[in-house]
Amino acid sequence: DADYLSAMAKKIFQSGFVWRVVEQKWPAFETVMWGFAPEKLSIASDEQIERMAQDKRIIRHFTKVKSVRENAYFVKHESKKHGGFGQFIAQWPEAEITQLWLYLKKHGARLGGNTGPYFLRNVGKDTFLLTGDVVRYLVSHDIVTKAPNSQRDLALVQKAFNQWREQSGLSLAAISRIISLSVGDNFLS
């Protein structure tokens, strides 16, 4: 569970920040945040969280540091229900991956947008990403009319990815990568 919480926290800190800097500081994050042990972090006091957020060895972003405690509670709760947080993630069907995104957003902290999907991909869960190129492709092929934010639009996108996966035998991640390389500046000829 600590590894999942660490991976989740890393994606949260990378969001809107230079990933390389986060990567370089990550060993210090592991130390400052008690090895990301959910049972410890979920009961950290406000004062302990404030001290962590002021530690110069890490990126001092109070809201993101505070989200680690909130997500520690989330990981601990789901782990107890499912026999491990990894079990919770593994049992979720890829054919409904956007529903897992919404679940992470609702029950976790700072896991909306692409942060949740990036976290899932990082821990080995098959998922697609709604990058700018993928969204442009979806709009240009009339699957959605704009960036999919509503549950209705996410269901349309999920349906399209499920169909492509069934037709191609490829993973959602592979399909997402292919799409991202077929439009915009990434187009490969």
What does this structure look like?
This protein has 189 residues and is an all-alpha fold. The protein has 11 helices and no strands.
List keywords for this structure.
65% helix, 189 residues, 11 helices, 0% strand, single chain, mainly alpha
Helicity range: 55-70%
What string gives the helices and strands in order? HHHHHHHHHHH
Low-confidence spans: pLDDT under 50, at least 5 residues? Answer: none
What oligomeric arrangement do these chains adopt? Answer: single chain
Count of separate DSSP helical elements? 11
How many beta strands in the DSSP annotation? 0
Mean pLDDT: 96
Q: Return Rg in Å.
A: 18 Å
* Overall geometric form: globular
In short:
It is built from eleven helices and no strands.
Topology, element by element:
Layout: H1 2-14, H2 19-32, H3 38-41, H4 46-54, H5 62-82, H6 85-91, H7 97-107, H8 115-122, H9 132-140, H10 151-168, H11 172-180
